[in-house]
Design goal:
Elements: H1 2-19, E1 20-23, E2 27-33, E3 36-41, E4 44-47, E5 53-60, E6 63-74, E7 80-91, H2 94-99, H3 104-121, H4 125-130, H5 132-146, E8 152-163, H6 166-248, H7 252-269, E9 273-274, E10 277-278, H8 286-300
Antiparallel strand pairs: 1-4, 2-3, 2-5, 6-7, 7-8, 9-10
Length: 301
C-alpha cells in the first residue's frame, strides 16, 4: 500500500510538471497538440494538457545581432570588393517563425547578402564608399518585405567593412596623396596671394598716410607763416601807430628829425665798406644837404 502511494505521488509530480509551464520574460513557446500547432504560450504561468500538448519550439523575443559573412561584390565599374556587415533582427511572431520557414535566420542572412550584392552592382566604387547609409536602408527595406512571413522583423543593417583589391587600394592612396598635395599647393598659393595683397594694401595705406602727413605739414607751415606775417604786420602797424602818436606830441617832430639824421649818418658811415677802403661821395658837402632834405620830407609828412 505504501508503494502505491509513492507511485501515485511520483505520478502526480510528473503530471504537474507536464501540466504547469512557466514561460520566462521575453520568451514565447509554441505548443503542438497531437503534432499540430495549438497555441503560443506567453510569459508567465500557463496550463497545458499533459501527454496531448508538447512544447515544439522555444523562441527568444529579444533583439539579436548576426554577423553577415564577407562576400565578394562587383560594382558598376567592374571592381571586385569584399563587403561584410551585421544584421539586427527580432522574432515578432513565434508561430510564423516556427512554421513560416525551416530556418528564418539562414533565410534573412541570405536575403541580406543578395540585396547587398544588388545594391553594390548599381554603384561605382567611389559612390559605394559614400552611400553606406543608403545601402543599409535599402537592405532593411528589402528584408522588411519578406521577413513578416517568417515571423521576424529586421531592425537594422550596418555595413562593417568594404575592402577593395590591393591594387585598387594603392591607386586610391595615390589619388588621395595627389589630391592632398593639390590642396596644399592651392592653400600655399592662396596664402602667398593674400600676403602680397596685404603688403600692397600696407604700402598703399602707408603712402596715403605719408601724403596726408605731408599735406598736413604743409598746411601747418602755411598757417605758421601766415600767422608770422600777420604778427609782423601787426607789430609794424603798431610801431607806425606809436610813431605817429609820438609825432603828435610836443617836441615829437624834433625828435623824429634828430632820429632820421642819426640814422642817415649811421647809414652813410656803413656805405660801401670793403676791407680797409671806404668809398665817399665826390662832394662831401652834399651830406648836410641830404640830411636837410630828409628832415624836410619828415616835416611834410
Amino acid at each position: 500500500m505504501e508503494a502505491f502511494y509513492i507511485i501515485l505521488g511520483v505520478f502526480a509530480i510528473i503530471l504537474a510538471s507536464q501540466t504547469i509551464k512557466i514561460v520566462p520574460q521575453q520568451n514565447a513557446w509554441v505548443i503542438e497538440r497531437f503534432g499540430k500547432y495549438h497555441e503560443t504560450l506567453q510569459p508567465g504561468l500557463n496550463i497545458v494538457v499533459p501527454f496531448m500538448d508538447r512544447i515544439a519550439y522555444r523562441h527568444r523575443l529579444t533583439e539579436f545581432p548576426v554577423d553577415i559573412a564577407p562576400q565578394v561584390c562587383i560594382t558598376r565599374d567592374n571592381t571586385q570588393v569584399q563587403v561584410d556587415g551585421v544584421l539586427y533582427y527580432q522574432v515578432t511572431d513565434a508561430a510564423r517563425a516556427s512554421y513560416g520557414t525551416s530556418n528564418y535566420l539562414a533565410a534573412i542572412t541570405m536575403l541580406a547578402q543578395t540585396a547587398l550584392r544588388s545594391e553594390c552592382g548599381k554603384r561605382d566604387l567611389d559612390k559605394l564608399l559614400e552611400d553606406r547609409d543608403a545601402i543599409n536602408r535599402t537592405v532593411v527595406f528589402a528584408l522588411d518585405e519578406a521577413s513578416p512571413n517568417w515571423g521576424v522583423k529586421v531592425l537594422r543593417y550596418e555595413i562593417k567593412d568594404i575592402t577593395p583589391p590591393p591594387q585598387v587600394l594603392a591607386s586610391m592612396q595615390k589619388q588621395i596623396t595627389a589630391e592632398r598635395e593639390k590642396r596644399a599647393l592651392i592653400a600655399q598659393s592662396e596664402g602667398k596671394k593674400q600676403e602680397e595683397i596685404n603688403l600692397a594694401e600696407g604700402k598703399m595705406t602707408a603712402s596715403i598716410r605719408e601724403s596726408e602727413g605731408s599735406k598736413q605739414a604743409a598746411i601747418n607751415n602755411a598757417h605758421g607763416e601766415a600767422e608770422a606775417l600777420m604778427l609782423v604786420a601787426n607789430a609794424t602797424a603798431e610801431s607806425i601807430r606809436m610813431v605817429a602818436n609820438a609825432i603828435q606830441t610836443e617836441g615829437g617832430l624834433t625828435a623824429v628829425n634828430l632820429k632820421v639824421a642819426e640814422k642817415f649818418v649811421d647809414a652813410f658811415g656803413n656805405i660801401a665798406k670793403q676791407g680797409n677802403t671806404m668809398i665817399l661821395p665826390t662832394n662831401a658837402a652834399d651830406i648836410a644837404g641830404l640830411v636837410a632834405t630828409a628832415m624836410q620830407v619828415v616835416k611834410k609828412g
